[in-house]
UniProtKB/TrEMBL annotation:
This is Cytochrome P450. Signal peptide: none annotated. Its cofactor is heme. Gene3D superfamilies: Cytochrome P450 (1.10.630.10). It comes from Hibiscus sabdariffa (roselle).
């Protein structure tokens, strides 16, 4: 997301797996926002005033993210001022796109740094967790369902360039649309393991829910996507089975389910802006991993899920061995 959003690589996946301060700060921010929902307003307001507990971490995290964002915004503006070929720049990224949006002369652009800071924050958060948990659970599920992996491999062989020289293969949107079974497998994955397992909504006025329950004004409602994705009432008695075929019609096309029952990316005005980007990223990474390696889950490990902050995650990670395909 840093590459797409800011045009630089923070090298979080280097061999040393370094602790990146900004990543830690984003987790602290998420944790504080969740706790604000759980605590009475007066309590977290007091913690904020006293600068203690999660509110202290929130303030520190926001400062770290702000400093990080403004540093790269300033650096990018300086580069654009020195260059008259911003749109032809090989390092073109989303931040550049928003900076140059209002005109071709980068020195006359009017986007405020605060606006750009918000864009940077969106890019850092919008797909970070969804791609992480989506890919982890996807690889876990296909490793434990070899017949699904075999069908995905057949689809990859039919739609990927010949040869397996170890180079990353990229795809256009049209090319990715050919991977119907792969997309169906991802839909099944995020139904069982949504990256955001639940979210809150607040009523503006008194209302009646579809269930018939009445709610008053300013009532906080928790929608559990994790429970909805495992509901027999919605998905049938085989709701827990990993069957990508559920999402494929008799003519081999993807079947769209009602938005009211399938909400891993939200719906309506609150739908996730990064949905398509996240799905494209996950499919591209999955294709490149699966075509090169056979993924085997290490035996006798406990794969447990938790949502310590806003997002679902594997509590102890997922240990696998990768065997290179010949």
């Amino acid at each position: 997301m840093c590459l797409l959003g800011l045009g630089f690589d923070p090298k979080t996946l280097s061999v040393e797996f370094p602790v990146v301060e900004t990543t830690e700060a984003l987790s602290d921010i998420d944790d504080a926002l969740v706790r604000r929902r759980a605590l009475p307003r007066m309590i977290w307001k007091l913690q904020k005033w006293l600068q203690i507990g999660t509110e202290k971490k929130l303030s520190k995290g926001l400062k770290i993210v702000d400093d990080f964002s403004y540093r790269y915004i300033s650096s990018r503006r300086d580069e654009l001022r020195r260059s008259n070929k911003a749109k032809a720049d090989d390092r073109f990224d989303a931040l550049t796109a928003f900076i140059v949006e209002e005109g071709s002369d980068s020195s006359q652009l009017g986007k405020s740094d605060r606006f750009l800071r918000d864009i940077v924050y969106d890019f850092l958060t919008v797909a970070k967790d969804s791609t992480t948990i989506g890919l982890t659970c996807f690889l876990w599920l296909i490793a434990t369902h070899p017949w699904v992996e075999a069908k995905i491999l057949e689809e990859i062989e039919a739609n990927c360039p010949e040869g397996n020289d170890g180079k990353t293969v990229y795809f256009s949107t049209e090319e990715l649309n050919k991977f119907v079974y792969l997309r169906a497998a991802f839909r099944k994955t995020v139904r069982l393991y949504p990256s955001v397992p639940g979210y809150f909504r607040c009523s503006i006025e008194p209302d009646v829910l579809p269930s018939g329950d009445r709610v008053g004004p300013n009532a906080t409602i928790l929608i559990s996507l994790y429970s909805m994705g495992r509901s027999e009432e919605i998905w049938g008695k085989d709701c827990m089975e990993f069957k990508p075929e559920r999402w494929i019609s008799e003519v081999g096309e993807l079947v769209n389910k009602p938005a009211s029952s399938y909400l891993p990316f939200g719906d309506g005005q609150r739908a996730c802006l990064g949905k398509e980007l996240s799905v494209k990223m996950m499919k591209t990474v999955a294709i490149n991993v699966v075509r090169r390696y056979e993924v085997k889950v290490v035996e006798k490990q406990k794969v447990a899920m938790t949502n310590k902050v806003l997002s679902l995650t594997t509590q102890h990670g997922l240990k696998v061995t990768l065997n290179k395909r010949l």
